[in-house]
Amino acid sequence: MAAGHYHVRSVxxxxxxxxxxxxxxxxxxxxxxxxxxxxxxxxxxxxxxxxWVKATLHSSPDLVWAxxxxxxxxxxxxxxxxxxxxxxEGWLLVARWSRLMGTNEREVTRRxxxxxxxxxxxxxxxxxxxxxxxxxxxxxxxxxxxxxxxSDRELSRSFFDLLTPYDYLPGxxxxxxxxxQDDPADFVAYQELALAIALxxxxxxPPHWPHGQVSPELLPRTLPEPLEAFHFWVKSDRARKTxxxxxxxxxxxxxxxxxxxxxxxxxxxxxxxxxxxxxTLPGTYDAIRYRDDRADQSIFDWxxxxxxxxxxLSQGGICIDQGYFASEMGKARGVPTLLFRxxxxxxxxxxxxxxxxxxxxxxxxxxxAEQQYVxxxxxxxxxxxxxxxxxxxxxxxRFRFLPNYQQSRAWQFxxxxxxxxxxxxxxxxxxxxxxxxxxxxxxxxxxxLLAQSTAEWPVIKRESTMRSAARSFQRYPxxxxxxxxxxxxxMRERGQTSAADHEERQLAxxxxxxxxxxxxxxxxxxxxxxxxxxxxxxxxxxxQNALRQFGVGAGMDAFDRLVxxxxxxxxxxxxxxxxxxxxxIAHRVLQPPAGSQFAQxxxxxxxxxx
Length: 610
What we know:
Blueprint: H1 19-29, H2 41-44, H3 50-57, H4 65-81, H5 85-101, H6 105-119, H7 143-151, H8 153-162, H9 169-182, H10 184-189, H11 191-201, H12 226-238, H13 251-258, H14 264-271, H15 283-286, H16 292-296, H17 309-315, H18 319-332, E1 337-343, E2 348-355, E3 361-365, E4 379-380, E5 385-386, H19 389-397, H20 403-420, H21 424-437, H22 442-454, H23 459-472, H24 477-493, H25 497-510, H26 516-533, H27 536-551, H28 556-572, H29 576-590, H30 597-609
Antiparallel strand pairs: 1-2, 2-3, 4-5
Keywords: Signal
């Protein structure tokens, strides 16, 4: 596959100077009291009922969200005191919805734009300017829909489990309300599907999705209308055109179905194939004849005049076309799929993964083991960032459906509520209880560390918590590495610089064999630090040692993460001799195979130097 260099355009939001004044005005309105919002001590020991929700929302014209939030939060504390976890979670969900619905749309949009800009997730297909009206989010949805939403704990759980700072809430809520208004019965029957569509369709996909090796004229980077998509998938499921029953999947899985890039015409063509089932789906990858002539001539972009599924099947393609074809064929049959892009010893590659009949993820269809494509990347269609390794593992393990996780989530919510109320020690205790119930609850570990930091615990005690988190994620290398990096940072904060350097080297070596990508990431952090702190001769020595220790066998990943960035840095510093040394060291240590894409990339940098 050809290298893709994409320029990310930030998303800007104007009108922020008015936000503070508007927020103050909203807070003034929230000071209005309403005696109709109340929960008796006995009622607090049971989850909120639909009748209570309806009565509360229609009780008074002076009703304000802040009062519902406070009442529900207090009821949750009553339930907590009696150890009624189910009721506690139910009231906390009401409090979270109330807090969300009472938030001004301008403020929500400002936060979202800041998150998008910070994560560099903006792109050319998104609008550059957002100027929403000054109103509470509750004004966007119909009363009937909101009663259904706040009363349905399963849908609420899925919503708050999946919600990220990168989801455009006004768009998500508008889509959900529209799907509900069109057909409430279908919405209730397929609410996880509706949620998946809302979370995926809230903003347009980026121009390099699902891959960048076909022109936008042949594959428009657009999604259909949400209502049209909802009807298509509901109809497909009811007609038994889907291999998975869509009503049995969660939104966390369905987002990998509804994010189809192929047209409905192509998807119907795929559904018409009687031979396509769970056992034959892996074969759709090799069903695309590999075009050696394109690979030999380095024709990595699609050269034809059509990029439909039937055309790809008839004309053949390279690995990216094989992966695209197979993943879209799976989506057409209601199978969650991912298109992976990876790097190996001599070039880039693509393959696909899917959720099989036993609801286990197979993530290696078309991957070549001898090429060490250890950790390819795939789009998370909810955010259009790369999906995390551990999230794929969590999806496969499906532990979020188990009672222990549900208990953990309830105590995580309680910890968040205590932290909002500035009850820091209670927050620490609740977060600790959450990780005790389910040690894979990442958000609970993050809350525990945040609460300890807020309580100004000594660094060495927080470091102990970080190590406990790292041990809990031994089977998830990216999370293990993340928390260990926090440990290393804490050690430096305590002045243990030499020990931190040793721990950092150990962390990189730990992943050299099984997860070279994480070893390379750690080596890249070491290289980035030396570029800031050390003289040129030390930088070159660190670079050479990093390549020797962690780059051999990593191939293109070592090129992308170590060679090219350091080459660009030295050239940008007008250190032409050092830039030449970078290429000499890289060629000597990594020994790229002659004629490979790896060798071509090294040659490209050499030409740039000349």
